[in-house]
Design a protein that fits this description.
Elements lengths: L5 E6 L14 H15 L4 E6 L7 H6 L4 H25 L4 E5 L8 E2 L2 H9 L3 E5 L9 H11 L4 E6 L4 E2 L11 E2 L1 E3 H7 L6 H9 L4 E5 L5 H6 L6 E4 L4
Parallel strand pairs: 1-2, 1-6, 2-5, 3-4, 3-5, 6-10, 9-11
Antiparallel strand pairs: 7-8, 10-11
Helix pairs in contact: 1-3, 5-7
Length: about 240
Amino acid sequence: MTKYKRILLKLSGESLMGAKQYGIDENRLNDYAKQIKEIADMGVQIGIVIGGGNIFRGLSGTSKGFDRVKGDQMGMLATVINSLALSSSLSVMGQKNHVYTAIDMEPVGEYYSKWKAIETMEQGEVVIIAGGTGNPFFTTDTASVLRAIEIEADVFFKGTRVDGIYTADPEKDATATKFDEISFDEIYNRGLKIMDLTATTMCNENNLPLVVFDMDTIGNLKKVIMGENIGTLVHPSNK
């Protein structure tokens, strides 16, 4: 038995680069698709949001002279490219899926609505939601939390290259220690930068638990679905 029936999985755009300096590493993409199909075959209903940092990040564009709104729109389009790539990889593996976009972009993807997305998941298809929130000034993390709440997910999974939340950045501080479990309030009080404040607050206020785990290790997605303690569980502060 899986611990969760319906999930929202946020994937990192940067992680899709794999061994490359830019763009999409096909091996990493296929590894992700295999893990997603594995839990779909177990009956888990899956919504996915992918970042676009492997192609373009709006904030970095702004620092180089881009208009913020146009830069964020470019970042939204980058998430659409990644979503189409994942959709293609899943389809090749025989996993039915559907791409929805926060901006009207047919025939690239169907315009997103909560009810269509839920119906699609209930039919056994993986739902990939692209284009962020459709608005500038919001991160993909915030878009992910928003979609998780809308589709009534049991949990928000943030798949990263790090195996959980630490007291400091483990890639920079060798003394950093990992949390097995932590509250959103404690994350805020400690100043831990796991997501932007809007995303963290939305999780907390809507009683949406968060699991941060290493998605780059094959098999980890199934482990967290089964409830294994391999990442960090962040629980709402009133729990």
